[in-house]
Design goal:
InterPro entries: BUG, Bug_dom1, TAT_signal. This is Tripartite tricarboxylate transporter substrate binding protein. Belongs to the UPF0065 (bug) family. The protein has 325 residues and is α/β, with parallel strands linked by helices. It folds into two domains: 164 residues, D-Maltodextrin-Binding Protein, domain 2 (3-Layer(aba) Sandwich), CATH 3.40.190.150; 99 residues, D-Maltodextrin-Binding Protein, domain 2. It is built from eleven helices and ten strands. Strands 1, 2, 3, 4, 5, 6, 7, 8, 9 and 10 form a ten-stranded mixed beta sheet that branches. Helix 4 runs parallel beside helix 11. The protein is globular and about 65 Å long.
Length: 325
């Protein structure tokens, strides 16, 4: 075999060997995608994931199966995804915990949120609002601030648990206003809300996804909202910034991650279909029902948001002395 024939044969063999990989990449997805949710079924994160998964399934042409893996403040699910094969068939919902809080709340994590994930795209955010029981002496934010300053340590606040966005939102509020309010952690948003509505605990920060209905029905009084601008769903409620609290935007946010090393075309395809899903009627209705603001954008924008939030919340968590291990 002469040199020219040998080179042609080698080139043909290389092309044949590369063909299955090239086909797998250009044909993505070719099998069921597993979408891991690091919370129990039925919660807000789970419902959002299922709504988006159904919308994305229709354009991806493959089924997306939700896999609930709660535990360890989302670390169990996140670690599973970080260590999964980077082929685009395992993705996850990630929120403030995975992306911004846990690196400050735990002495050591089994994964690095900056290096061990591929950032696919942001899903959305919903602000947290400061609410009180209707019989609480303060009728507006100004009166609330005056009351807690006059009664340091005597006012309790509820949260869905240590390290939750609701807990840390109040710690940021305390930090910015120089107030002392005592934390009463619950195991979930539902029991915390129930005790605030019942008057057992006078106040809490509550996200719109969980509490919009009771806010609008006036079962609690909404004093201020932690968004950059007033919510269209609660137009009469001032923002914390309007009330004079600096650097006070507090919100829960979510996005989609995959393991580090996802092929660029896979990230691009998932990002495209996620952004397309925001325009569907089902997703728009679900987001409107829970007061969630969609955040279409690029993987790079999602990464930038996550790292900015991690940097912002680190000093707050350290000052409050909050640890989960």
């Amino acid at each position: 075999m002469d040199r020219r024939t040998l080179l042609a044969a080698l080139a043909s063999s290389a092309a044949a060997a590369a063909a299955p990989w090239a086909h797998a990449q250009t044909g993505y997805p070719e099998q069921i995608i597993k979408w891991l949710v690091p919370y129990p079924a039925g919660g807000g994160t789970d419902v959002i994931a299922r709504t988006l998964a159904e919308a994305m399934r229709q354009t991806l042409g493959q089924q997306i199966v939700i896999d609930n893996r709660p535990g360890a403040a989302t670390n169990i699910g996140a670690d599973l995804v970080a260590k999964s094969k980077p082929d685009g068939y395992t993705i996850m919902s990630a929120d403030n915990a995975v992306l911004a809080f846990n690196e400050h709340l735990f002495s050591k994590l089994p994964f690095n949120p900056q290096k061990d994930f591929s950032y696919i795209g942001a899903i959305g955010k919903f602000p947290l609002a400061l609410v009180v029981h209707p019989d609480f002496p303060a009728k507006d934010f100004k009166e609330f601030l005056a009351y807690v300053k006059a009664n340091p340590g005597k006012v309790n606040y509820a949260s869905p648990g240590n390290g939750s966005p609701h807990h840390l939102a109040m710690e940021l509020f305390k930090n910015r206003t120089g107030t002392f309010i005592t934390h009463i952690p619950y195991r979930g948003a539902a029991p915390a809300m129930a005790d605030v509505m019942g008057g057992q605990v006078p106040c809490m920060f509550l996200d719109l996804a969980s509490g919009l209905q009771i806010m609008q029905s006036r079962k609690v009084r909404v004093l201020a909202i932690g968004s950059g601008v007033r919510s269209k769903l609660l137009p009469d409620v001032p923002t914390l910034a309007e009330a004079g609290v600096r650097d006070s935007e507090v919100f829960a946010f979510q996005g989609i991650l995959g393991p580090a090393g996802l092929p660029q075309n896979v990230v691009a395809r998932l990002n495209t279909e996620l952004n397309r899903a925001f325009g569907t009627a089902a997703v728009q209705k679900r987001f409107a029902d829970i007061g969630m603001e969609a955040m279409p954008g690029t993987p790079e924008q999602f990464f930038t948001l996550a790292r900015a939030e991690a940097k912002r919340w680190g000093p707050v968590i350290k000052a409050a002395g909050v640890k989960l291990d």
